[in-house]
Amino acid sequence: MAPYIGTATSRVDGVAKVTGAAKYAAEFNTPGLVYGSIVTSTIAKGWIKRVDGSAAMRVKGVIDVLSHEHRPPMADDDKAYADEVAPLGSPFRPLYDNRVMFSRQPIALVVAETSEIARFGESLVRVEYEVEAPVTDLNRERDAAVPVKPPTNPFEALFTPPKPRGAPERALAAAAMRHEAEYCTPIEHHNPMELYAATVIYHADGKLTLYDKTQGVQNIQRYVCSVFGMKPEDVRVMSPFVGGAFGNGLRPNFEIVLAVLAARALRRSVRVVLTRPQMYALGYRPAMIQRIGLGATTDGTLDAITHDAITVTSEYEDYYRQETGWSGLLYTCANAKYAHKLAKLDLPTACDMRCPSAATGVYALECAMDELAVALKADPLELRLRCYSERDQNNNRPFGSKALRECYRQGAQAFGWDKRNPEPRSMRDGADLVGWGMATGVWDAFQAPITVRIALSANGHAEVACATSDIGTGTRTIMAQVAADMLGLPLDHISINLGDSNLPQSPVEGGSWIAVSVSNGIATTAASIRDELLRLAKQIPNSPLAATAPGEVALIDGKLADKGDVSRAISISDAMRQGGVERIEQEKTTNPSADAARAHNTHSAVFAEVKVDEQLGVIRVTRVVSAVAAGRILNTKTAGSQVLGSVVWGIGMALHEETLIDHRFGRVMNANIAEYHMPVNADVHDIKVIFVDEPDDSNPLGIKGVGEIGIVGVAAAIANAVYHATGKRVRDLPITLDKLSP
Amino acid sequence: MISFHYARASCVGEALQEVAGDANAKFIAGGTNLIDLMKMDVERPTKVIDITRLPLKRVERTPGGGLRIGALVRNTDLAYHPLVEQRYPVLADAIMAGASQQLRNMASTGGNLLQRTRCAYFYDIATPCNKREPGSGCSAIEGQNRMHAILGGSEACIATHPSDMCVALAMLDAKVHVGSASGDRVIAFADFHRLPGDTPQRDTHLNAGEIITAVELPPKGFATNYTYLKIRDRLSYAFALVSVAVGLELDGDTIKEGRFALGGVAHKPWRDPQAEAVLRGQPAHAATFARAAGVVLRDARGYAHNTFKIDLARRCIVRALTQAACGTPQSQSAKKIV
Hints:
CATH architecture of one domain in chain B: 2-Layer Sandwich
Shape of chain A: globular
Strand content of chain A: 25-35%
CATH class of one domain in chain B: Alpha Beta
Oligomer: heterodimer
Shape of chain B: globular
Structural class of chain B: alpha+beta
Radius of gyration of chain A: 27 Å
Largest interface: A-B, 42 and 36 residues
Strand order of the largest sheet of chain A: 3-6-1-13-10-11-12
Helix content of chain B: 25-40%
Largest sheet of chain A: 7 strands, mixed
Radius of gyration of chain B: 19 Å
CATH class of the largest domain in chain A: Alpha Beta
Largest sheet of chain B: 5 strands, antiparallel
CATH superfamily of the largest domain in chain A: Aldehyde oxidase/xanthine dehydrogenase, molybdopterin binding domain
Strand order of the largest sheet of chain B: 4-5-8-6-7
Strand content of chain B: 15-25%
Number of strands of chain A: 33
Number of helices of chain A: 18
Distance between the termini of chain A: 63 Å
Distance between the termini of chain B: 44 Å
CATH topology of one domain in chain B: Enolase-like, domain 1
Number of helices of chain B: 13
Number of domains of chain A: 3
């Protein structure tokens, strides 16, 4: 049996997804289910004077109108609302009190017998406010931004700027070549296809089963228990399928609070589904202004890097990620310093969105590097190779593995980079100006503690269980592949059980850490299954494995075999039946190897071609090559899809995506997916994904994770290509055609 | 979304009866815009009259050599109708430039004429909007106005009409056939939509109790020298920043007749006889086109976020007239601009 790891295995849940058999949070039904429709604030800041639900209550079928004036008890301390990944601050509490802190804030819930009646009732709820003037404009608040607090523990230190090195100001001032500029990126929203939804099943004994759209069922379970003072055994959270989340489902969102609130108030099962506009009252990628300073010698050796960021968060929580540190990690430079300030606005708290910090931080850096290359009259790729970092200078340590040079080489070759004429506006295709740009990508390779249970049956079937989500990345599929290989069984003999808080512990699915964590977790538990089988096999009279040590056997083709001589083998079923067991169950926790002595990162090289109509400024991204180094690739098909999707998102980031806020109202005005532009099929042309070999021994399976690296560098490569095509440098995204007008 | 009554009409007379005397009744055909507006509580009809069964689904030749398009002909069916493809390709192209395949499969001819602006403030009942709530104020004039009008706006409203199809119909001098209890009438396309003035709540000159029964095309279809050029913020499925429908009749290099209509720039598809007069009898080259563009845009006015549209419109007009003159109309599937 050929191994499954490393192959283009199709999704094990693909058929279920395309036939509708896969059920999402809003699709679980139960008799007597009622429906909640959310009333949201029309103001961005102020106080609710009165919520008048009387007209709604007169509608036949409306059961209740919940609000801060009328609801069951909720916890009254911040700690109860601080979930597993909450930033510092005072988390938002839905329907808690009369304070309005952002536009479209949920302020009441109309519960009715049908969703239509609930929605009608919602339209009848009248709210009186005491209005205050909101502040939502980063440009207006940039001078009032305050530095992020120094870290108090290693976790916080992941997000605060690294320590400076050398004498960066002096080096920048003295540099023979200097580039300094400001790069701006807007607020972006995640816009997953599936709306946030929760179905709460209320059991007769008051216990709850929650179906929620989330990236972490156990995070939701702990949160609901602490907010509502419930016991873990009384709250089960399920999320078997998720229709895209991209970071927005890491923290509990308000649909789950409102649904639980209503279920407890009415002692009934309740469903709450957000509308598309309400999705714009969740987290978002923060808008930011980044200032980059690069100093170099005339031969292109970097001598100074300064990277300052001002990013957006709410008035009540300090969300930030480390945009700045990537600069001093990616390139060798003796002198570097970083700064990060927060602008606190009357908006919801920002949150992680695919590759938070690197998508934006590396965008600014890689545009600045392109500008430096132009100033130096150097090839942009040559400059990056000259500045290539062999060590993580931020933390003074080597990389666990770094095949970025190979990404540059294979990406450039596939793209044909050597045929590039460096002169802007020099390449043409009819009425189109042609531009070629490139950029580097980098992201972390995290691993987190995780627990996996495997139950092996004597008939050679195995059930693998872990509470992790599969947010659409293909987690279920790679889990099945790894389990099949580790247990020596065919793929269709493996069943995967995930997305259930009753299952063994998993962190939230994010940061590209689940593939590496759960795969190694499966390997650990499978090894202990193997050991148990060996113990049984040794008990068989005249066992061919009587003298074989655990390290010398492997599970291959349904048999436990001596790795040195596979003819010395005993089938799984023989071992179990002879031993009188029908089922072997093992549950093991796997901790990441504490390898802080080395830096763990994924890398990429992105090459982009744009064609720009010279007269009208219409931009088409006609080709992208993304070469990725991310350790061992578990599944070339699903991993390839991850990178493809990321590149498409990068096209959107470069050309389309922008949340438009009317600062007078503090309100998102393009709160729908017709007016919030993201790429459509017509905007997506030829995308080639290359995975370069990158052996890595940081974890037993050599995995790094590919959920996020694919977006990093794409926007910069496109922005650099637009400059190369047009000679015009646009430093604020998205690059809409008006920004190219003469 | 509010509760409403539903009625179904099987003939025009029945539809008119259902709507008579009920100011809050609305006809529904494809529903591609009305349903959205109802979900947002922008439109709050007390009665919705389903007209999808009315016998208005035919495309027929008229005795005068033109084409009569029933009000319920789906956008997709119209765009792919052989007579439209052959004789009025600019109309087929304009339809294909709009919306998505799914929407075009649902949307009707009459409904396309009656779709409402996509101004974000019109759609959001939390904000003032004179078109939605007369007298409440225009939020766009000092707000997010990137998509808004540069021509024909007023202090009360700078919304644009969102249709692509209507831009081609305006250029083609189409006529709108309207029925009512008091009799039928025909409205010239140029007089169908209106400018906002101080009553922006009214998009058209259609009266209460009237129903669109057909759109009629005159014989002249400009099937040789035409184009529909639409510029937007992504390459498909976005409303026009600027669009141009062009029809030229050439005699060698000389323009015998030249027409063009603009979309995305005003409260109605924008035609300007003075600008078209500039083309007449002149050589079909860029200098002529630029002069015509200058005339049509002479009173253009930009706001904080849409001033770029004035110059963009100028360049689009020149490009579109060039495409038409060269006989190389813009392809709506290949997104490269020819």
